[in-house]
Design a protein that fits this description.
CATH class: Alpha Beta
Strand content: 5-15%
Order of helices and strands: EHHHEEEHEHEHHEHHHHHEHEHH
Oligomer: single chain
CATH superfamily: Alpha/Beta hydrolase fold, catalytic domain
Number of strands: 9
Radius of gyration: 18 Å
Structural class: alpha/beta
Number of domains: 1
CATH topology: Rossmann fold
Distance between the termini: 23 Å
Largest sheet: 9 strands, mixed
Number of helices: 15
Shape: globular
Length: 347
């Protein structure tokens, strides 16, 4: 069972939320601020608990492979122009011309966030491409600056290396920014390689230069080795609790905690600074392909108003709200996310 959803195109929410608040939440909700959220959450319903058990099984399979009798796929290494090495997983579909879905992941984590969705897509016969963002997981940082335009160039490199055409691009959080960065900086690549987009729990604008002083303070916290150390403690999962909605699953929080804690602090901090000047609204206004925007009603990182903003900017975009879900939608509700990707594939 998937959670109830509402689907429509919504106008930009009346009154803009503080842009500074969004940036501070990105850092703060993954640090001490999330502790308070953990205390206040109510118990999940019986139906949520049954869904949680299924989702937990997906995460547990990460340590063993992609399913019973299936070995964990090995990545290929794709080198960028500046020398970064990107780890890429290109998982063949069941048919030679199977539809392709490309899944860039979120800030501070890795492709593993997408595995529950990727397994479902693969079970249905689709070709799935995943990669670790620059400086994350098995990918190296390289020498290029960690800025929004670099996301576009890295994504272009992956699409070319995997020869992806007529693909559905589905990005979570920073991964959604990677897709939108293509629209802003490499629109020809987007038109040539993609047929549809699914933007999951993401944003097209940040705080701008006026909040950089506040972001620098947050960056110092996010980049601190103390954050990584705290996450390794017995109750370290509480530091990421605020990234989840109702009925959060401990295995999901542990996975997110481990990935974020193992990501280099300087990489976390420098990407956070890039988000401060994020503004691809003009670029996405030129998008001319089917687009679905998905957000959790309890997302405190890329808040629902950010999804409203994207849906209002992209002509014909469709907005889907997953009730009571938070920011980590590929883990929290992989069935609902998969269903929207399949809908985009079938067009």
């Amino acid at each position: 069972m998937t959670s109830p959803i509402t689907s429509d195109v919504s106008p930009t929410a009346g009154g803009r939320r503080s842009r500074a608040r969004w940036l501070l939440l990105i850092g703060g909700a993954l640090t001490a601020g999330a502790v308070a959220g953990a205390v206040s959450r109510r118990m999940a319903t019986a139906r949520s608990e049954r869904q949680a058990e299924l989702s937990t099984a997906d995460v547990e399979r990460l340590a063993l492979g992609w399913g019973d009798g299936v070995a964990r796929p090995e990545p290929r290494i794709v080198r960028t122009r500046d020398g970064a090495e990107l780890a890429v997983w290109d998982l063949e579909g069941s048919e030679p011309n199977a539809p392709t879905v490309v899944l860039p992941h979120c800030w501070g984590c890795s492709h593993e966030i997408w595995v529950p969705v990727a397994r479902r897509l693969r079970d249905e016969g689709y070709r799935v491409v995943l990669y670790d963002q620059r400086g994350h997981g098995a990918s190296t940082r390289g020498t290029a600056p960690l800025v929004i335009e670099t996301l576009a160039h890295d994504f272009e490199t992956v699409l070319e290396a995997t020869d992806a055409h007529d693909a559905v691009l589905a990005g979570h959080s920073m991964g959604g920014m990677s897709i939108m960065a293509l629209a802003a900086h490499r629109p020809d690549v987007l038109r040539t390689r993609a047929k549809a987009m699914v933007l999951v729990a993401t944003a097209a604008s940040g705080g701008g230069g006026g909040v950089l002083n506040g972001v620098r303070l947050t960056r110092a916290v996010v980049a601190s080795p103390a954050v990584s150390k705290a996450m390794t403690m017995r109750n370290g999962h509480v530091f990421v609790r605020g990234a989840f909605g109702s009925g959060a699953v401990r295995a999901h929080m542990d996975l997110t905690r481990d990935l974020f804690g193992n990501c280099d602090g300087e990489v976390r901090g420098d990407w956070l600074m890039a988000f401060a000047t994020l503004d691809v609204l003009d670029g996405i206004a030129t998008i001319d392909m089917p687009t679905t925007v998905i957000v959790g009603s309890r997302d405190t990182l890329t808040v629902p108003a950010k999804a409203d903003e994207i849906a209002a900017a992209i002509p014909g975009a469709r907005l889907v709200t997953l009730q009571d879900r938070g920011h980590m939608l590929p883990l929290e509700d992989p069935d609902a996310v998969k269903d929207e990707i399949v809908r985009a594939v079938k067009g």
